[in-house]
Design goal:
Blueprint (H helix, E strand, L loop, with lengths): L1 H22 L12 E2 L2 E2 L18 E4 L7 E4 L4 E7 L3 E6 L1 E4 L10 E2 L5 E3 L4 E5 L3 E8 L2 E7 L10 H8 L1 E4 L2 E3 L9 E4 L8 E2 L2 E4 L11 E6 L16 E7 L3 H8 L6 E6 L9 E6 L3 E4 L3 E4 L6
The structure holds 2-acetamido-2-deoxy-beta-D-glucopyranose (7 copies).
Length: about 300
């Protein structure tokens, strides 16, 4: 009887321990560092206080807001962070650059020059307007943009309605903006250069070539991937922009000294602006944690 009881206790304790182990995830942040801001995981090299991030480029500010939950910002580049991965990508709230759109203030342009971030070529450039040539880059080496016209002398667009109509839910929770513009009222280009660090689009009148013209003109760079928080009905519409990031060689050197079975490393080329193929490591299959800190064997419950 007593043996049975001890057995019972031992069994449930083992089970509890197993469950505890399964729940206790390998750390993604440095010791004593907060590893999330609201529902966004913040893995090292990103961090929220001194000693928790690699350098100031990776500093995250988790700011309390009066309306609603705290939001995460990449302090140095002043962009709102929506998600980030140790795999080298980050999703930020993409700026919407507008001109003469009633009820809409333009967001500031993006300049990531000198930072470890580049704009991913997986984003799509979308422009809205009538009689509008929207230029994403306009320099002697590269002039890239698209043209949008409207029917029958119409010279303005309902930008709110247009933005909402851009978002297609292709399957539940999977929202996409690709292929929703045909040059009438809006236009898109998908061949974004891979080395882009500046996004400061300009607008021209197609007819006159003038800088300013009638009506609202607007442009943004946004990803095509799904995102649960990206709701069609959201009145404060925004578009997730995909960035790539990388660490400098000193941190990558660290990987060469680590037991190779815990890491799965590849040489990848993010962009020609980084001018090199860089080593990138993830935790190997069966391991979890943070490749920049430590990958530990996953506890698996085999029953
Ligand atoms: C973490 O915080 C605890 C309690 O404040 C302290 O004893 C410990 O040394 C800290 N560890 C590190 C790595 O800073
Ligand atoms: C961030 O991305 C990961 C992987 O795609 C996903 O599992 C997670 O839910 C995302 N987090 C947020 C806050 O969107
Ligand atoms: C790499 O970045 C770290 C953190 O910012 C810095 O301390 C170090 O000097 C850098 N090393 C090189 C080789 O740039
Ligand atoms: C972007 O920033 C860099 C350095 O901060 C500066 O030299 C450059 O002129 C800026 N580019 C644009 C297009 O604003
Ligand atoms: C382009 O799309 C608009 C609105 O979705 C539609 O009214 C128009 O007929 C389309 N034009 C062409 C050439 O497909
Ligand atoms: C803004 O657009 C309106 C027409 O919608 C036009 O009358 C006005 O001149 C435009 N303003 C500028 C600064 O281009
Ligand atoms: C990455 O490239 C370097 C040389 O540029 C090479 O020594 C190394 O073996 C490569 N690593 C992998 C995982 O392919």
């Amino acid at each position: 009887m007593s043996v049975k009881l001890v057995y019972g206790v031992g069994f449930s304790l083992a089970l509890l321990l197993a469950i505890q182990l399964a729940i206790a995830k390998a750390p993604i942040a440095k010791p004593n560092c907060t590893d999330h801001c609201e529902n966004i995981n913040i893995p090292y090299p990103f961090g929220m206080s001194k000693g928790c991030y690699l350098d100031e480029w990776f500093e995250i500010e988790c700011s309390k807001s009066v309306h609603g939950p705290p939001r995460a910002f990449l302090s140095k580049i002043k962009m709102e962070l929506l998600n980030v991965s140790v795999g080298g990508w980050a999703i930020v709230k993409g700026p919407i650059i507008s001109f003469n759109c009633s009820g809409s203030k333009t967001d500031p342009p993006v300049n990531l020059t000198g930072s470890p971030f580049v704009i991913s070529p997986d984003n799509i450039f979308t422009a809205i307007g009538c009689n509008t040539r929207a230029l994403m880059t306009d320099n002697p080496l590269q002039r890239l943009g698209c043209e949008s016209t409207c029917h029958g002398g119409q010279n303005d667009v309902d930008w709110r309605e247009m933005l909402h109509n851009l978002i297609n839910e292709v399957s539940p929770g999977d929202y996409r903006i690709e292929g929703t513009c045909n040059g009438t009222g809006c236009c898109q280009i998908t061949n974004i250069p891979s080395s882009l660090q500046v996004f400061n689009p300009s607008f021209q009148d197609i007819d006159s070539g003038d800088q300013s013209a009638d009506g609202c003109k607007l442009a943004f760079l946004g990803g095509t991937y799904g995102m649960n928080s990206w709701k069609k009905k959201n009145p404060n519409i925004h578009f997730p922009m995909l960035l790539y990031w990388m660490v400098n060689s000193s941190l990558r050197e660290y990987w060469r000294g680590v037991d190779s079975k815990t890491l799965d490393c590849n040489n990848v080329s993010y962009s020609s602006s980084f001018n090199e193929v860089v080593l990138r490591c993830l935790c190997s299959h069966g391991y979890e944690g943070n490749p920049f800190l430590r990958c530990t064997g996953k506890f698996t419950l085999s029953c």
